[in-house]
Amino acid sequence: MGESGSWVPPGWKLWSLPGRVRYFVLGVDLLALGVLALAARAAPTPGQWVTAGWLAAAALPHLHASHLIERRRRDRSGTPYVDLCSVWIFAGAIVLPLVLELALVAVLYAHRWVLVNRFDPIRPPHRTVFTAATLALAAAAAVAVLRSSGVHEHLTGGARPGWADLAAVVAAAAVQWAVNTGLIGTVIAWTVTVEHPRRLLGSASDNLLEVSQLALGVFVALALLWWPPAALLMMIPTFALHQCVQLDQLKVAARTDQRTGLLNAIAWHEQAEHALERTRGRIGVLMIDLDWFKRINDTHGHPVGDDVLAEVATVLTRAVRRGDTVGRYGGEEFAVLLPDVDEAEVRAIAERIRVRIRALRITTPAGEPVTLSATIGAALHPAVPGAGLDEMIRAADDALYAGKKAGRDRVAVAGW
Predict the structure, then answer these.
(1) 133 shares its domain with 30
(2) Smallest Cα–Cα separation from 127: which of 106, 147, 113?
(3) Would you state the pLDDT for residue 20?
């Protein structure tokens, strides 16, 4: 997004957002400030200040230490920043009055801004403020559930929790997740084209991570209520969860082509080998090469070429069946493994891919159209002698080059 005027401070890109998004962001920020003002009318007790101090004493060192993990991980993978703030925020929702809970959110995100976001050129200040505001409103909603159900008074009064308390805590966690996801999802829906609405809710792994944070937050809250120094020990499992996130994301990054989001050549080959071992039926391999791709790079520049690769990757993932394995094999070449297919299906899928690539309408930043086509070579096991994956790839490659010689923009199948 570009700046909307010369008066806009460097990095402050709020005013360049689309109108309804800008008003929505400002509305959420103002609503959070209003909730804080209302909550501030009730002064916390000295004991509540002490509890908040214990919670901050556990949260801030964890977030500071996790910054070192995130800096190494992002340098390698370029994936979004992960801080696991929800552990501490949900614990605060259970044990703190609302004003201290909102103050905790403000402190955590002020810490994050000083440590991380002020050095991040793609995250202007309004995004940090909006994220903090959404979490503040989500936490306020969770507090409302806990207060209305009587759980807060029950637990802070020293009573032993029962099943009704557990149900209320689960409901509060669900409300916190729903409010935060709904607010963030609205902005995403209004600013980014999303293929499936379900993606606005985050991936399964993202939601599992959030649920894990909320569960840890419950145990942090119980420690704060019954044995506050034990809350400091909860930094250890939270830190361990963060390490697991790092390992998982690095593993995904190592298998993923950064330009297209598809499997890279090594990962595709490994996954295709496993699929070949498990499948008893016939298997097809497609090798897809974009025609005259070097000409696109030379004429329009490599950024446009990268956009073309990303668009083609989207076409491939939509054109294949569930269970097919798609990867970028290198340069402008892609590979697809098709388990349990016959000859007609191989040709039909390959032709569908070719037609959809041909139908792509891509324009450069200058508004110039980019003409695109692809040649596809296909091979089918066991029609190809030799049976192994490498032999099938070789046969599909031979068919691909035969299709190139025959005039490009066509499907050629080995042995047909």
Answers:
(1) yes
(2) 113
(3) 79
Tell me the DSSP string of 298-331. HHH-HHHHHHHHHHHHHHHHHHS-TT-EEEEEET
**Residues of the chain whose pLDDT is less than 70?**
1-18, 67-83, 116-124, 192-205, 242-254, 279-281, 383-387, 415-416
For residue range 10-29, list pLDDT tens digits in order.
344 666 666 778 888 889 99
Domain enclosing residue 374, as ranges: 265-413
| Contact partners, residue 29, CB within 8 Å, separation at least 6 | 129, 130, 133
Say whether both 202 and 57 belong to one domain: yes
- Of the three residues 255, 281, 305, the one that is the final residue of a domain is 255
Q: Is residue 45 part of a domain?
A: yes
Q: Are 304 and 370 in contact (CB under 8 A)?
A: yes
- What tokens appear for 321 in the block? 């069946």
Residues 231 and 272 placed together within one structural domain of the fold = no
pLDDT tens profile 229-249: 888 888 888 777 766 666 655
Asked whether residue 188 falls in the same domain as residue 247, the answer is: yes
Q: How far apart are CA 143 and CA 97, in angstroms?
A: 8
- Among 255, 283, 315, the domain-final residue is 255
Is residue 288 in some structural domain? yes
Determine the angle formed by the axes of helices 204-226 and 85-95, rounding to 10 degrees: 40
pLDDT in tens, 289-309: 999 888 888 888 888 888 888
Taking the C-alpha atoms of residue 323 and residue 320, their distance in angstroms, rounded to an integer, is 8
